Amino acid sequence: MSLLVVGLSHRSAPVSVLERAALHADAQVKLLQDTVAADPATEAAVLATCNRIELYADVDKFHAGVAELSTLLAQHSGVGLEELTPFLYVHYEDRAVHHLFSVACGLDSMVVGEGQILGQIKDALARAQDLHTAGRLLNDLFQQALRVGKRAHSETGIDRAGQSLVTFGLEQLAAGTDVPGWARGRTALVIGAGSMSSLAAATLARAGVAEIVVANRTFERAERLADILAEAEGATARAVRMAAVPDELTRADVVVSCTGATGLVLTADAVAEAVTGRTGEPTADTAAMVPAEPFALPPTSVGTDENCPLDLASVQGTPGFSVHGEAAVAGMDAATLEQHAAWVGEGTSLLEQGREPGAGGRFTPEADAELITALAQAVATAGRVPEYRRPEPVAEIPRPAPAVFLLDLAMPRDIDAAVHRLAGVRLVDIESLAEASADAPMASDVDQVRRIVSDEVAAFGAAQRAAHITPTVVALRTMAADVVAAEIARLDGRLTGLDDRQRGEIRQTVHRVVDKLLHAPTVRVKQLAAEPGGTGYADALRTLFDLDPETVAAVSRAVDNTDEKDRPA
Questions:
Q1: pLDDT tens for each residue of 392-443
Q2: What is the dihedral of CA 38, 43, 48, 52, to 10 degrees?
Q3: How far, in whole angstroms, is CA 201 from its chain's centroid?
Q4: Spatial distance between the Cα atoms of 450 and 442, rounded to a whole number of angstroms
Q5: Which residues are catalytic?
Q6: Which end of the chain has a smaller Cβ tally under 10 Å, C or N?
Q7: d(CA 159, CA 153)
């Protein structure tokens, strides 16, 4: 098996590239025909959806196959090879099988667990079969992928994962309150018109928001989603262009963003300006909201006390982070940050030491870098920022009630992580959702599906390796039968006095001897061939028994033809 897949998807390429590289039906047909006509490929199938374009092929040379498939994708998509190459991914053999099975289960979809991809895989297989570009390998692969996808949906709750992500994100925004009660009467801005954004918009509509505004780079798609929300959900919805987002931010209570952009859609400055325009008051940096009295923690030499979690000496000279606290160091509140700053400052807060006189509470870059580098060092070592002994309880620093709620469902992120530090704003993103939902049902469903995929990949590989040696074993037994027939014929000519019963007994005896001699080796070689690295046993058999390669190939063609007749519709 030499399975190769070259493709691009929403995980590797921006929407602008995916849209330009989209293949219409005629282009897919021509791509398949040109692929099997190319030198390295003998089979081909195209999986083309709104979020992915993948070319699968059975190739005899890896590097030549990658080069040829990449070139063909560029030619038929109309995107130059140099421009397309940075967004392409390549999977080979078992990794390619693992990739398709993951896709079939919805693990690689924009909405985790969505079932639409199964129909698209079925269409891809039917197209390749109609064009006779799918041989034994791709027929087996795609049919098994469909079975694996159906198994994942029937044995787990993976089809609920996408819904759970949106719902859980809104629950996090609502901070434990009832989502319909929290959402009712609010104005929502949805940025993006893809499947995840559409799901979020529909969920908000059912929760009772007063109005939904949809913004998208392609205005027609925003209009289509707004129309669907109005017709199917009875929501008050309208579409705007992306240029209108800054104005809409000043009116929105809830913002959901999920686009395919590779850069930030909403910067911290843009959000701060919108909140200021909404409330009439400037936003504050919560990392600067420290208690008036510095904490009186015991003086210490940094890194020498056994209970001290931080070691500045080991990170001296290491460049610090440019954004203060990097969203308060992965979500740390200001009080905890100040507490650890006081410890590493030998009783005097580094935040206090680093304040610029008359700068209105701002910190020097040196203090920012030194503190955050030390804290990041602790996070990297311990997985979290440990507490110093059991410090005295620190009163939570009051934070203004959120005026704007933001949900970032994009990966990579759409909304600047620095927004976490803005007062009057609550931001929930993929990272915070992943941390908060580690024990959620959707996480366990995804893990269960991943185990199913791993098991199915191993089983598929074993079956393919075992099938690879079957024609050689059949050819060996055919050769043995021919030898037996020739020897029986020679014996008949020499022993003319034997009657039919005696001749039959001799014939059965010779056959039994040959069968017994071949039984153990052929059974064992099938077992060995099914194991990883077992593909060489077929070559060994052909060499040891001097089997005619054309005889083996003829058996392979006969097996393939039988399989084609027996394939389900």
A1: 444 444 556 788 999 998 866 889 888 888 888 999 987 777 666 555 556 6
A2: -80
A3: 23
A4: 12
A5: 50
A6: C
A7: 6
